[in-house]
Amino acid sequence: MSDSVFKRLREALEQALASATPPEDLYDLAGRMRTALVEARAGLGEMRDAAEKTDRELALLRREIETAERRRELAAGINDAETVTVAEAYLAKHRERAAVLERKAAAQREELALAERDVAEMMHQLEEVTKRRGTIDAGRSSAEAWASLGRAGQDRPELDPEQEALKARMDRAAREAHADAKLEELKKRMGKG
Asked: SS in 3 state form for the chain?
């Protein structure tokens, strides 16, 4: 995955975290962050595919090395010095290639782990921007609704804490009664079944 994908994603996330981001820019910012996150996830898939390909190449090479070692031993057993020499050269070349592939596979796994952590962090930051945008939208919607009522001649009622608490208790009692009724109905159905 190219560094530019992560660079663009990181830039979008840094913009999201800037506390001076005006609310009207959060929609655009969240959109850019989503786009960058989609690109990063696609890049993760490419990185996984490349790491798996390297692992398959390494496994194949190890099998070839095992086969060459057996052939060298068989040639040594029948005193075929020429075949032993060719097998040892083959083994040296393939062991060196295997060592390179092992380092490559380790580097790919480390890079993939780093990229996965980056994507997880970016997803968390996008969630934060989305929550922040939702809070701003809710506040804006509420304010706009009250302003509209005010223009229509309606005043915003003052909230009485005791009245609100009583209403909340009554709402909860109604929900619990409804849940109890549903539970009884379910028990009756289960008993008949």
From this structure: CCHHHHHHHHHHHHHHHCCCCCHHHHHHHHHHHHHHHHHHHHHHHHHHHHHHHHHHHHHHHHHHHHHHHHHHHHHHHCCCHHHHHHHHHHHHHHHHHHHHHHHHHHHHHHHHHHHHHHHHHHHHHHHHHHHHHHHHHHHHHHHHHHHHHHHCCCCCCCCCHHHHHHHHHHHHHHHHHHHHHHHHHHHHHHHHC
193 falls in which pLDDT band (50, 70, 90)? very low
Mean pLDDT computed over 57-82:
91
- In percent, the amount of the chain with pLDDT more than 90 equals 22
